[in-house]
């Protein structure tokens, strides 16, 4: 069964440095790092202390609120360092990889098992971390059953990894994963695809939606909003398409294989292409060889330019990303930059900005904010790039003045920070929309739960 | 390289100083800052608030220049030094250096006073609240000289600007937080505090008030009358101007409000650049036309007679209302202020319509002062949050209904 979803509001940000469809093996990383901050709101209880030896798929820590929920090591090796921040918060768990990799064997999973068994298996094997929930955009609470599960198989974000390419040949794993997931909900698994050639388009036990239109047509939040928006008291789960492969492989073979095909993209990359690597790998294993100038003034982002995390060259690929983007830093002044005509930057207005003249042109943008932070002034600009049936500015303001009732009424249960990436990009007042939404969600999680 | 580096070093050296926002205002005027994104989106759109505000100013510049010529033209015409321009918009009697220099020396001081006083207050508040100087006043400062009579004394303007910026804006928290349009707050202050300088038949033409004072002092000179079209109509007199002159703007009035043609071009520019809201402009015009039609209907069905004091304005053809007075200027440049207008798209339609509708209503019924745009916009500024509230409630209700459908 398939349906079409076409959105009109949005913005395709076309950037230089799209990854060429060629995959190389990344240099094997010696160090891997798992950062609990990737699992927002989870308080980790450390299992593997410094000096412990772990196999790939062995528990590093579990969720303090739910002991069954394990978070596992992507490689086998030795836990060499547990970095701690203020109040002994665990910042990162660093693992030095073995030359010979050994995996924990969870055994082949019987796909005809019932929901409880599926749940227990995913929790114990570390695959639960890939299942996130809305409201709040956090790792899913395994005690609640979701009204539906959503997967986006179409990446519309700028310089995103092409899922049709990275998932090709993984149909068996994808099928196993959605079969198992479909047991966890009565509402079915809903998958969006960009074309019917997608490996996700022909899966059983799913409802397929062919999405088209500008970004954020591929965001899972857009899919949820168009199919079945989250109401108060309801929960939906989301899984990234590339993580279905890991779940599927675990079910089929019993191994937690943290392998992931990652796009290295961005205008600072000399030869943008795809790499086969593991979750938690050091980004320097990919970005330098034929990639980025060693001493260049560049920003390395684990994730895409709209929602990713700024990482240092010795930083690590985060748990949910399948893109590393490298773009130039913009830490320079520009003479009369605020009033001279602009041809080399993207704009949604035409205020002496001329990107409307060449809609197909690819731009080389840097990290300059192009202006200073201001109060909200202009209106109507966010709505043009925001396809959800929600008033973006009003909900942002409700978050800022922390009015829980209003946040709830305006649709806070439906949103995740990434839904506000485009409004943040076009914001003339340079307000940090995603941060505002994240803090609003955290507040609701704490007060309402 | 030199200037850029020097300013950067100066900024680094004085990072903690309280007066830094004052320096920043100048620094960021010269250079787009070197600020980079942190987490969140790593790239940003090219526009910032300065560019947005600058675009609005660009749209007003033709009105400003025309206003200078017109000030001189009206002055010379009233004193009988030149004859009525007959060649339309490009009339050679109008675009003379003589006209320009009279207007230039009257208008530029208004602009300077408006900016100096307003920005000084903005900078003081920025330092006091330690935030950057926000750009809102760039537009307000240009609007103010365009919406006052040419002979407004400078000290009055200074007092009004100080009042408008402090009470109209800063007490609410500065740019983006104000409820009333600051430029109109300034004008409203002038209007209620110094009514003799803001209405009547003397203030619209440079020199008319002086002439009156000379007469009062016993000198034998001719009194000058510079009645606006609305003033004449309110007294049931003939408008006395050709339609095209009204459209081109060769009529007495506030400095920048007269030329509907140039305001229209400015409005189209704002719509094209996506800075001004076409929804507000269009719905406001519709609102004004509807009200005008209602009044025309009242006259043609004979409910009021020529003896009524409202007859002159009510019987004015409905679409003439768009050309006379400050309606066009208010609609294009003041009703569209994003901070004080409705912020939702649906709300903008309602807000704009009511601005137009009420403008013409007040214009016709206001006994003392035949113009309603200022008061209509200020009134709707107050109601804009309410309009938005009900529009947003529509969305909230939809959400509630969804929950109910689930439960049922």
Supply database-style keywords:
heterodimer, A: alpha/beta, Ubiquitin-like (UB roll), OB fold (Dihydrolipoamide Acetyltransferase, E2P), seven-stranded mixed beta sheet, six-stranded mixed beta sheet, globular, ubiquinone (chain A)
Characterise this structure.
The complex is a heterodimer of chains A (about 450) and B (about 400). Helices cover about 20% and strands about 25% of the residues of chain A. Chain A is built from eleven helices and 21 strands. Chain A has helices spanning about 115-125, 165, 170-180, 220-225, 240-255, 285, 380-385, 390-400, 405-410, 420-425, 435-445; strands at about 1-5, 20-25, 30-35, 45, 55, 60-65, 65-70, 75-85, 90-95, 130-135, 140, 150-155, 190-195, 205-210, 235-240, 260-265, 275-280, 300, 310, 325-330, 335. In chain A, the strands form four sheets. Chain A has a seven-stranded mixed sheet, with helices on both faces. In chain A, strands 2-17-16-20-18-19 form a six-stranded mixed sheet, with helices on one face. Helix content of chain B is about 60%, strand content about 0%. At the A-B interface, strand 21, helix 10 and helix 11 of A face helix 1, helix 2, strand 1, helix 3 and helix 17 of B. Strand 21 (about 335) of chain A pairs antiparallel with strand 1 of chain B, so a sheet runs across the interface. Chain B: Its cofactor is FMN. Chain B: This is Na(+)-translocating NADH-quinone reductase subunit B. Chain B: Belongs to the NqrB/RnfD family. Chain B: Its main location: membrane.
Shape of chain B: globular
Structural class estimated from helices and strands of chain A: alpha/beta
Portion in beta strands of chain A = 15-25%
The percentage helix of chain B is: 55-70%
Question: Which class of the largest domain in chain A in CATH terms?
Answer: Alpha Beta
Radius of gyration of chain A: 21 Å
Fraction in helix of chain A: 10-25%
- The total tally of domains of chain B equals 1
Biggest β-sheet strands, sense, barrel of chain B: none
DSSP strand tally of chain A: 21
How many separate structural domains of chain A? 3
Instruction: Give the low-pLDDT segments of chain B.
Output: none
The profile of the biggest β sheet of chain A is: 7 strands, mixed
Q: What is the tally of helical segments of chain A?
A: 11
Biggest interface found: A-B, 77 and 61 residues
Please tell me the CATH architecture of the largest domain in chain A by its name: Roll
Give the N-to-C terminal Cα separation of chain B: 70 Å
Note poorly predicted spans of chain A.
Answer: none
Oligomeric state of the chains in view: heterodimer
Number of helices of chain B: 17
Mean pLDDT across the residues of chain A is 90
Domain Na(+)-translocating NADH-quinone reductase subunit A C-terminal (chain A): 261-311
Keywords (chain A): Ion transport, NAD, Sodium, Sodium transport, Translocase, Transport, Ubiquinone
Domain NqrA second alpha/beta (chain A): 114-256
Protein name (chain A): Na(+)-translocating NADH-quinone reductase subunit A
């Amino acid at each position: 069964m398939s349906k079409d979803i076409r959105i009109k509001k949005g913005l395709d940000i076309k950037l230089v440095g799209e990854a060429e469809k060629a995959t190389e093996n990344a240099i094997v990383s010696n160090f891997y790092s798992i950062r609990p901050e990737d699992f927002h709101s989870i308080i980790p209880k450390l299992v593997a202390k410094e000096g412990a030896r772990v196999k790939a798929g062995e528990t590093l820590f579990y969720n303090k609120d739910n002991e069954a929920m394990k978070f596992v090591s992507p490689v086998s090796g030795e836990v060499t360092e547990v970095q701690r921040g203020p109040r002994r918060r665990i910042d990162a768990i660093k693992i030095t990889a073995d030359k010979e990799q050994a995996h924990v064997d969870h055994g082949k999973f019987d796909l005809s098992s019932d929901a409880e068994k599926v749940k227990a298996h995913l929790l114990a094997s570390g695959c639960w971390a890939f299942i996130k929930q809305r409201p709040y955009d956090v790792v899913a609470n395994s005690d609640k059953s979701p009204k539906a599960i959503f997967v986006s198989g179409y990446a519309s974000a700028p310089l995103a990894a092409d899922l049709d390419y990275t998932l090709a040949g993984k149909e068996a794993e994808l099928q196993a994963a959605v079969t198992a997931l479909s047991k966890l909900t009565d509402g079915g698994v809903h998958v969006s695809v960009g074309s019917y050639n997608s490996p996700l388009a022909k899966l059983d036990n799913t409802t397929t939606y062919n999405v088209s239109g500008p970004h954020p047509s591929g965001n899972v939040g857009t899919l949820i909003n168009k199919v079945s928006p989250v109401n108060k008291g309801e929960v939906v789960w989301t899984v990234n398409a590339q993580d279905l492969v890991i779940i599927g492989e675990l079910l089929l073979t019993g191994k937690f294989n943290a392998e992931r095909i990652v796009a290295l993209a961005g205008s600072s990359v000399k030869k943008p292409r795809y790499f086969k690597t593991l979750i938690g790998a050091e980004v320097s294993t990919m970005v330098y060889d034929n990639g980025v100038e060693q001493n260049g003034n560049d920003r390395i982002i684990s994730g895409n330019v709209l929602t990713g995390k700024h990482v240092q060259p010795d930083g690590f690929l985060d748990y949910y990303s399948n893109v590393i983007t490298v773009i130039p830093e913009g830490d320079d002044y520009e003479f009369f930059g605020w009033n001279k005509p602009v041809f080399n930057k993207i704009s949604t207005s035409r205020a002496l900005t001329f990107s409307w003249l060449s809609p197909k042109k690819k731009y080389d943008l840097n990290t300059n904010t192009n202006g200073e932070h201001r109060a909200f002034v202009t209106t109507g600009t966010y709505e043009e790039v925001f396809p959800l049936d929600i008033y973006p500015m009003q909900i942002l303001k409700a978050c800022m003045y922390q009015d829980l009732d209003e946040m709830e009424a305006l649709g806070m249960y439906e949103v995740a920070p990434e839904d506000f990436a485009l409004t943040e990009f076009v914001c003339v007042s340079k307000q940090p929309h995603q941060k505002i939404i994240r803090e609003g969600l955290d507040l609701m999680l704490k007060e309402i739960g | 390289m030199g200037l850029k580096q020097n300013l950067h070093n100066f900024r680094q050296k004085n990072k903690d100083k309280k007066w830094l926002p004052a320096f920043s205002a100048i620094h960021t005027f010269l250079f787009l800052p070197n600020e980079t994104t942190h987490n969140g989106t790593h790239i940003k759109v090219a526009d910032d608030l300065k560019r947005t505000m600058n675009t609005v100013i660009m749209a007003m510049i033709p009105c400003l220049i025309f206003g200078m010529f017109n000030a001189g033209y009206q002055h010379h015409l009233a004193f009988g030094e030149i004859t009525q321009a007959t060649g339309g918009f490009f009339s050679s009697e109008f675009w003379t250096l003589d006209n320009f220099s009279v207007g230039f020396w009257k208008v530029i001081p208004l602009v300077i006073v408006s900016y100096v006083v307003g920005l000084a207050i903005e900078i003081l508040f920025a330092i006091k609240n330690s935030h950057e100087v926000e750009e809102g006043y760039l537009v307000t400062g240009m609007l103010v000289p365009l919406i006052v009579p040419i002979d407004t004394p400078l000290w009055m303007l200074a007092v009004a600007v100080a009042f408008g910026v402090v009470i109209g804006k800063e007490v609410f928290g500065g740019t983006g937080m104000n409820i009333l349009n600051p430029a109109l707050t300034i004008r409203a202050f002038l209007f209620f505090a110094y009514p003799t300088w803001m209405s009547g038949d003397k203030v619209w033409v440079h020199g008319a008030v002086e002439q009156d004072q000379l007469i009062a002092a016993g000198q034998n000179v001719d009194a000058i009358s510079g009645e606006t079209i609305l003033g004449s109509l309110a007294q049931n007199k003939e408008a006395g101007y050709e339609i095209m002159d009204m459209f081109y703007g060769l009529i007495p009035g506030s400095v920048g409000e007269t030329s509907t043609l140039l305001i229209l071009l400015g409005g189209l520019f704002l719509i094209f650049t996506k800075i001004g809201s076409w929804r507000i402009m269009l719905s406001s015009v519709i609102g004004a036309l509807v009200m005008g039609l209602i009044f025309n209907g009242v006259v043609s069905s004979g409910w009021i007679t020529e003896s009524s004091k409202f007859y002159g304005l009510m019987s004015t053809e409905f679409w003439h209302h768009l050309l006379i007075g400050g309606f066009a200027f208010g609609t294009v440049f003041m009703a569209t202020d994003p901070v004080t207008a409705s912020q939702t798209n649906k709300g903008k339609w309602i807000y704009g319509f009511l601005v137009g509708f009420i403008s013409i209503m007040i214009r016709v019924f206001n006994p003392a002062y035949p113009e309603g745009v200022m008061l209509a916009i200020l009134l709707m500024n107050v109601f804009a949050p309410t309009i938005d509230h009900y529009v947003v409630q529509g969305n909230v209700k939809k959400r509630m209904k969804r929950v109910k459908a689930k439960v049922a």
